[in-house]
């Protein structure tokens, strides 16, 4: 069923009785050509592009819960391409271009809103660093504008510019950055993949990965064994447990990142604003809630809920930056399980087991990567060669030390990226 | 979350700094090779359950090995790193 304004109109007139489920709920078949472990954003987009770009059929996505029940439904929905290092730069640039065509591609309203992203800076040194980053973004073909204090004031008049600890010197403005509706991205890819024949199998937990003579042959699941020629592990924060079934240890430590949303308010924050010095960033959802977050809780955790010290820190940072939000009531706080890599950059690669692929290490930047991550993993699985924009996301870069992409220069400690 | 410090008793998590998995106690020899250093610096068991990691208690300046559960945030035991190494 194709979605359109006309269909919404006619369905409205006929009591909305003509809508059908957006995807099937198939039982697993005994064998597939390709199995993707993980029905989140990255897994679903991989399945979609395997079918769409490479014409492959006979694909299953196995999800232990319901589709989109992990980080794709728990993030703060920011879409941007403001990376500095070669490797990341071209990948996120590609992803942003896919975002810009995503709604017509999927015939699904993902509510992508390019409202502009402003990263604030608070010292001369930080201004220089942001100028350099902006130049890298321009060199990549994306957009960046360095704003001085008055330039920022025109966009964000409500900030506290005179705060004594971190006075605002200016900001790096990325007009094509913005946000999107997180769940809709998962649902749009799921629907598109289903329409192209991909079996989306929910409540199907993978309990083992079968390997014979160095080659993957299938998986064991809570709904029985399934054979496959190729298997991709796309499990984000749970990557460690999935990889352990294949006898692998990954360079990943799982950490909690908290997020917050307030009650719905009238439109007040038009952009995405990040305040790096205070570890705070914020945007306003289309429903009116202020969606904001801060930094990791800093210790390994699978709890999917945070600890109070970071709640306090994020609130303090928000009040420092924009005292006007102080009377908004926080409705909910929650945590997502982040697959933190030692250099803060992701992994899309083959493994030592033939036919087994891994996609992980998205740190806290996985949402904006969803289109390109699926695009590139699908390319790798279908052609056997890495896609040019993801060629540096190698698993062995940690062992060899070649091609590390540490954007923040904080060294090989998982929780510091 | 509160962590029992062997010197100071049960203290608030804010007094502690997390360093990483206790694999950091097994530092390989400088010439141990790429695999050993990769294990040490990068690769992690990353368990959903009981784990051991290193925390620094700022007030008494002691390094601790903390055994805790990554799913429930329950702290099971702590001991000074000097004992963990022995």
Automatic annotation (TrEMBL), chain A:
Cited Pfam families = DAO
Localization: Cytoplasm
Q: Which reaction does it catalyse?
A: sarcosine + O2 + H2O = formaldehyde + glycine + H2O2; sarcosine + (6S)-5,6,7,8-tetrahydrofolate + O2 = (6R)-5,10-methylene-5,6,7,8-tetrahydrofolate + glycine + H2O2
The domain of life for this entry's organism is Bacteria
Question: Please, one GO biological process term?
Answer: tetrahydrofolate metabolic process
Q: Which UniProt keywords apply?
A: Cytoplasm, FAD, Flavoprotein, FMN, Nucleotide-binding, Oxidoreductase
- Single GO cellular component annotation? cytoplasm
Care to name a GO molecular-function term for this sequence? sarcosine oxidase activity
Cofactors named for this entry = FMN; FAD
Q: What is its EC number?
A: 1.5.3.24
- The main enzyme category here is oxidoreductase
Family matches, as InterPro entries: FAD-dep_OxRdtase, FAD/NAD-bd_sf, Rhodanese-like_dom, SoxB
Where in the sequence is the signal peptide annotated?
Answer: none
Rhodanese domain residues: 34-78
Membership in a protein family: Belongs to the SoxB family.
What is the name of the protein in this document? Answer: Sarcosine oxidase subunit beta
TrEMBL record, chain B:
- Any one GO MF annotation of this record: sarcosine oxidase activity
Where does the source fall among the domains of life? Bacteria
One GO term under biological process is:
tetrahydrofolate metabolic process
Query: Where exactly are the transmembrane stretches of this chain?
Result: none
Report the protein name in the record.
Answer: Sarcosine oxidase subunit delta
């Amino acid at each position: 069923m194709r979605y359109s304004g006309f269909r919404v109109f006619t369905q409205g007139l006929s009591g909305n009785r003509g809508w059908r489920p957006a995807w099937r709920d198939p039982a697993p078949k005994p064998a597939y050509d390709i199995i993707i472990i993980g029905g989140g954003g990255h897994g679903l987009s991989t399945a979609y592009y395997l079918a769409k770009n490479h014409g492959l059929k006979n694909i299953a996505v196995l999800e232990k819960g319901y589709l989109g029940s992990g980080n794709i439904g728990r993030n703060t929905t920011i879409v941007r391409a403001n990376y500095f290092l070669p490797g990341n730069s071209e990948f996120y640039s590609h992803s942003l271009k896919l975002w810009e065509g995503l709604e017509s591609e999927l015939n699904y309203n993902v509510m992508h809103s390019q409202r502009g992203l402003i990263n604030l800076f608070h010292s001369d040194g930080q201004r220089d660093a942001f100028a350099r980053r902006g130049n890298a973004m321009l060199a990549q073909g994306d957009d960046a504008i360095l704003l001085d204090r008055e330039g920022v004031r025109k966009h964000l008049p409500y900030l506290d510019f005179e705060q004594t600890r971190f006075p605002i010197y200016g900001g790096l403005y990325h007009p094509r950055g913005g946000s999107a509706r997180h769940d809709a991205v998962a649902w749009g890819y799921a629907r598109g993949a289903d329409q192209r024949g991909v079996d989306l199998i929910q409540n199907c937990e993978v309990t083992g990965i079968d390997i014979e003579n160095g080659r993957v042959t299938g998986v064991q699941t809570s709904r029985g064994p399934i054979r496959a020629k190729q298997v991709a592990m796309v499990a984000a924060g749970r990557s460690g447990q999935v990889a352990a079934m294949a006898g692998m240890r990954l360079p990943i430590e799982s950490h909690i990142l908290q997020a917050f949303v307030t009650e719905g308010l009238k439109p007040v924050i038009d952009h995405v604003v990040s305040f790096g010095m205070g570890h705070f960033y914020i945007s306003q959802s289309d429903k009116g809630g202020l969606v904001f977050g801060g930094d990791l809780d800093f210790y390994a955790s699978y709890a999917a809920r945070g600890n109070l010290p970071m709640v306090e820190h994020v609130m303090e940072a928000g009040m420092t930056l924009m005292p006007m939000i102080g009377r908004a009531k926080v409705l909910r706080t929650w945590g997502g399980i982040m697959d933190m890599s030692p250099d803060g950059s992701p992994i899309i690669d083959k493994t030592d087991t033939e036919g087994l692929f891994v996609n992980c290490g998205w740190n806290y930047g996985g949402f904006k990567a969803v289109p390109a991550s699926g695009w590139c993993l699908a390319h790798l699985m279908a052609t056997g060669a890495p896609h040019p924009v993801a060629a540096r996301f190698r698993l062995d870069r940690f062992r060899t030390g070649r091609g590390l992409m540490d954007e923040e220069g904080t060294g090989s400690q998982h929780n510091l990226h | 979350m509160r962590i029992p410090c062997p010197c100071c008793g049960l203290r608030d998590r804010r007094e502690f700094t997390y360093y990483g998995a206790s694999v950091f106690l097994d530092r390989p020899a400088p010439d141990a090779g790429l695999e050993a250093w990769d294990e040490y610096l990068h690769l992690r068991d990353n368990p959903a359950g009981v784990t051991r990691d290193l925390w620094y208690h700022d007030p008494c300046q002691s390094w601790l090995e903390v055994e805790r559960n990554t799913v429930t945030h329950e702290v099971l035991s702590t001991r000074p790193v000097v004992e963990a190494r022995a």
